[in-house]
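Attaching the record inline, Q. Sequence:
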Amino acid sequence: MRASIRAIAAGGEGVGRLEDGCTVFVHRTAPGDEADVELTHRARRWARGRLVRLLRPGEGRREAPCPFYADCGGCTLQHLAEEAQRAARAAIVAEALTRLGGVALAAPPDVIPSPRPWRYRNRMSFLARRAGGGAVLAGLHALGEPYRLVEVDERCLLPEEPVAAAWGRLRRALTADAALLPPGEEVRLSVRGTAAGEVLLLVEGGPAWWDASPLGRASGPWAGVWQRGGEGRVRRLEGGEVEDDLAAETVAVAADAFLQVNRGAAARLYEEVARQVGEVRGQRVVDAYAGVGVLARRLARAGARVTAIEANPRAAAQARRAGGFEVLTGAAERHLPRALPAEVVILNPPRSGCTPAVLEALRRRPPRRVVYVSCDPATLARDLRRLGEAFTVQGVACVDLFPQTAHVETVATLRATSPMARRSSAPLPPHPPAPAPGRPFSGQ
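Structure, as predicted:
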């Protein structure tokens, strides 16, 4: 059937209409495409299809450079030029905020580009399992088929060079000796790299009795190897934590640490958050979901009285070692009510968004300004709607943290509508131009 594609959906599929008016979602299509598609699913009001033949290409389309792109589900937008990708992400955010959040934007938000569109990920997770006859499958999930693995080697264009090289070693060790894997189970292999080129390995999965030490030794050298069993406990097999640089802050990194995967774009993200927070000298700032305290450190140096809240004990301990601000270890919903009042609250929750208890605490004791950092436009929109009339949206910007995918990081600034909180409110400073690619983050 013929389909006319008009936009990109949040999952990376092109969305358009069939000739009978039905909405259709088709991966590997682009806005402006006219395509022949084969329907794989049809409901009453929408359908899902597979691209069979491109009849007329859209303006932003290009040939995907990755050798695995035709089948691999790791990327969804390589067939779009970078500028067209950013336009698609901005439209995804605008559509979610308007339709789900009731936030009217005059135009789609700006998207601050990533310094590197390729080789930008400092952490990649691959899958491996035995395939029978001594063979091993190792790679990523197939596009639209989560139970099928696509063989992917170090030619994958997402990981930083040291991470790609380490994956190549690991994959060669596995294909040479299937006994390095547990029988009958799939394992997740996460490779993390530092700015200095050191690499760490986290092995997840396998039965309780299985020891991943031989796999680590056969595929090294590694700065550290960890294993997480089915019970969730992480144990160190060799090496240990190493130091890394994140937005000009020194952080200790283990293989299971949660840090932004795009170090260059992360620096730009923190710059944008600081811009939206504004002048903080002498003000009380709460950094909820603070991680290792990258933002809290910067704001404390700028003269703010900072309270950081972090649920992960190891990340909270690292933030506390940095010094200069208060750190509360535990869930945001537990600590935020007693950390208020504050002039500014920064929220950076997981993909699931904020809990109702966090939003209720903000409604009860509204800070002058809330800066909400979100990796999911839908949950951001939901939370903005739940905050209701207590806040109004003052500004929205995006950071291209995940090039070649439909994912995007959004920073929204909210202003309290109550007269008392609004009294000290100030307009956002002007948005500076995006720094030139490769420009280092000053950290000042």
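Confidence is low (pLDDT under 50) at residues 422-428, 431-444. The CA atoms of residues 35 and 54 lie 5 Å apart.

More tomorrow.
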